[in-house]
Design brief:
3 helices, Thrombin, subunit H, mainly beta, seven-stranded antiparallel sheet
Length: 336
């Protein structure tokens, strides 16, 4: 993969730099079910499975999309799309966000969720090593072979809450076709997070130029409100730690292949329940004790007589309650 400053879509061979899309050049080739199985090939772009039903990518790629989980075009597993949405504000690259909702959840390929809450504070820092991944071109001639590539880069600039610049570093950059691909960081527990969405490049594809990424965290609120799907299983909408039963089982592998697309990359490394910003999720305590009193209110029924022992949500909080937080994924999309 390699990238230059331009939207990262395939275009004419030598357009003005600001109009060029992104692809990963000088990166390593991913094998079947190798690096980042959740990174999918889309129509002339790249996307990332951040939730069993949600693939995020770049707005400038458009809403007419296909999704294939693969390491090489045509050799993987296609997913059926319910609908795709692009962010309505096309006046800035900082909102270069789009997503597709799949008809059926992908339950066997581990997701790479959005980095959020304290994870952003800890890992979106200058000089932080990151990994770029995508299906883009590998040189200035826009040579593409349909292969997924990945490579290490570094954060060189952070622009508020909306965008991140990476590279030049180690010759690795995003190029046309890498648009929409993820900016990845591996956390101490081995699991990975998506912190950015490949948007544009600044340089010549194949020569290791700088890349611009729209911040994934900036897209979270819009995606959740627009789709009605909770894509942050470990946090509430404001970034406070509130893990659900889905706050774990994230991709935690490396480039080592495991399984194949038909069996959902069986055996690929996944994380346990996450504790990046607090205690991990655990099953509610249903121990009734020696006296059969399940709720500690002095009787032997399971009613709490109004005392739920649940923390009260903060005033004006538009987030999940603790009770909702114990559920798995919620499919809350309103009919449009």
């Amino acid at each position: 993969m390699a990238v230059g400053l331009a939207l990262l879509l395939p275009v004419d061979k030598h357009p003005a730099r600001a109009d060029r899309p992104v692809r990963i050049s000088n990166g390593e080739i991913a094998e079947e079910c190798g690096f980042a199985p959740a990174v999918a090939q889309m129509t002339e772009c790249t996307g990332t499975l951040v939730h069993p039903r949600v693939v995020v990518y770049a707005r400038h790629c458009g809403a007419d999309q296909t999704v294939e989980f693969t390491h090489q075009a045509g050799l993987g597993r296609k997913a059926s799309i319910d609908y795709c949405r692009v962010h309505p504000d096309d006046s800035t690259l900082e909102t270069d966000w789009a997503y597709c909702v799949l008809n059926e959840p992908i339950d066997d390929i581990p997701i790479i969720p959005a980095g959020f809450g304290c994870e952003i504070e800890a890992h979106v820092q200058l000089e932080q090593k990151v990994t770029l991944c995508g299906f883009g071109a590998i040189d200035e001639q826009d040579t593409q072979d349909g292969r997924k590539r990945f490579g290490e880069s570094v954060i060189v600039a952070i622009y508020g809450a909306r965008s991140i610049d990476t590279g030049p570093y180690n010759g690795v950059s995003a190029c046309p076709g890498d648009s929409g691909g993820p900016l990845l960081v591996q956390l101490p527990d081995g699991s990975w997070r998506t912190f950015g969405i490949a948007s544009h490049g600044n340089g010549v594809c194949g020569e290791g130029g700088a890349n611009g990424y729209a911040k994934m965290a900036g897209a979270v609120t819009w995606i959740e409100e627009d789709s009605g799907i909770d894509i942050t299983p470990c946090f509430d909408r404001e970034g406070h730690w509130l893990p659900t039963a889905s706050c774990g089982g994230f991709w935690a592998g490396d480039a080592t292949p495991s399984g194949d697309w038909e069996n959902g990359c069986a055996g690929v490394a996944v994380s346990g329940y996450s504790d990046t910003c607090g205690a991990p999720w655990s099953e509610p305590d249903t121990d009734t004790g020696a006296d059969g009193d399940a709720d500690g209110d002095g009787d032997t029924d399971s009613e709490s007589n109004g005392d739920t022992n649940e923390p009260e949500p903060a005033a004006n909080c538009e987030c999940r309650t603790s009770e909702q937080g114990r559920s798995s994924w919620h499919w809350l999309r309103s009919l449009l």
